[in-house]
Amino acid sequence: MKRSKDTFKLNCQYRIVPDKQQVYQLNEWLYKLCRIHNLMLEERFNWWEFNRNSVNACPIFITHLPELKDQPTYYSQKRATHWSRETYKYLYEGVHSQVIQEAIKRVEDTFNRFIKGDLNGKRSGKPRFKSVRRYRTFTIPQLKPDCLSVTTNPHRRKNGGTRRDIAYISLPKVGQVKLIYHRPIPEGFTIKAALVSRRADGWYICLTLEDKSVPSLKSPEIEATQENSLGLDVGLEKFWTASDGEIELIQQHYRKSESKLVKLANRKDKKPHKSAQARKLAKKISKHHQRLQRKRKQFHYESATKLVSRDEQVFFVEDIKPGNLSRKNKPKQDENGKYIPNGQSAKSGLNKSINDAGWGQFLSIIAYKAAKAGKSVVKVKPHNTSQICSCCNRLVEKDLSVRIHHCLCGLILDRDWNAAINIKRVGLGIFPTIKRRKRRSKAATKEAYTVPLGSV
Ligand SMILES: [Zn+2]
User: Fold this and answer.
1) DSSP symbol at 388
2) Which residues contact residue 281 at a Cβ distance below 8 angstroms, ignoring those fewer than 6 apart?
3) What's the Cα-to-Cα distance from 230 to each of 135, 233, 247, 256, rounded to whole Å?
4) Distance 397 CA to ligand 1 centre (A)
5) Left if phi > 0, otherwise alpha if psi is -120 to 50, otherwise beta: which for 374?
6) Distance 456 CA to ligand 1 centre (A)
7) Which of 132, 237, 400, 421 is deepest in the core (most CB within 10 A)?
8) Rounded to the nearest whole angstrom, what is the distance from the C-alpha of residue 229 to the centroid of ligand 1?
9) pLDDT (tens digit per residue) in 176-211
10) Could you say which DSSP state residue 455 is in?
11) How does DSSP assign 273-289, residue by residue?
């Protein structure tokens, strides 16, 4: 679901069944768009390399500043006078012009996020050149309101029941494509745009629907109190722990099927490269991953529904960035330039579990579910919430292996439960702020407050 200023938008996903000719055409589009993507990116990288100079590496007074090139923009790249138009004319033929424009827009967006950062100034990683296999989606920004035609199926089932309606969607330059109309489009909505993607098990279309009469869905402003709010702590052991002690256990889908995936991968590696057997096994593996992804998503929806159907109105969650958590460790080198252990192998194991949990997806699902139910989800900063005692505000330092919070005041609580209570307190504004301790005093505090592992 997207939020815009004044209208309510909704995304609906359907499976489409293009015929042989259409599959050929869609694949060709993706191939061409991928090439265009890479060309545009290359042009931007060239500009970037040519026009920058690291200030700390060479003093500015001896650096020769070359004449600045014009920065490639969305408009310059879109224009017909562009250099690639002459040389790569064949790439532009046959593809709908608006679809090409959207692909170029995508390059612009990723590149801007790379050099400027998003609204909050957070910069993302260097955009990648894509291989044809990795380029799987294109956007159709405009569709006619009557592009979808639905007719009732005249045939009956053997038991007398009705069959699913027959639907076709008309895509520009592609024509009528059969669509599995598994759920009707909600009344009052019109189709605005579409996202076509190639997945492991076929083709899908995601329709952006818009209802002009309904204002956009917004989380209401609810004043949080001790009674109507709930703190949530997410973790690797339990999926979440609520501040009242309720827990949801994690479902490690990936971990469970890891050995099966490894076996499949080994079998694939033994086959000759690019052979038919290897391709078949690759398909099998990607289907397996797709299944895992769907299982995870369903679990997230069920878990979010369970939380939202509770009596509480406000949910405080950690403002975490799972992308940052699962980042790779920096390589370490000794004086001779030899690589020394950097703890990555241990981190890789943790990363798998972090990605398996998929908190990012869960947090966006619960925000959406809560808004729909007229409740709100508030993100709070989780600093120190696992370390401070929720009863007496004492600092009890413990590393990840210590699962029980054991405080001098007598409070013995599950570590995650303690953190969930603290997260609720941060949300309510009654959590103590702690200044960063100096390094010297750290050892002293640790000694005073850390409980030896054996006593837990
Ligand atoms: Zn305490």
Assistant:
1) B
2) 264, 267, 268, 271
3) 41, 10, 13, 31
4) 12
5) left
6) 15
7) 421
8) 22
9) 999 999 988 888 888 999 999 999 999 999 999 888
10) G
11) TT-HHHHHHHHHHHHHH
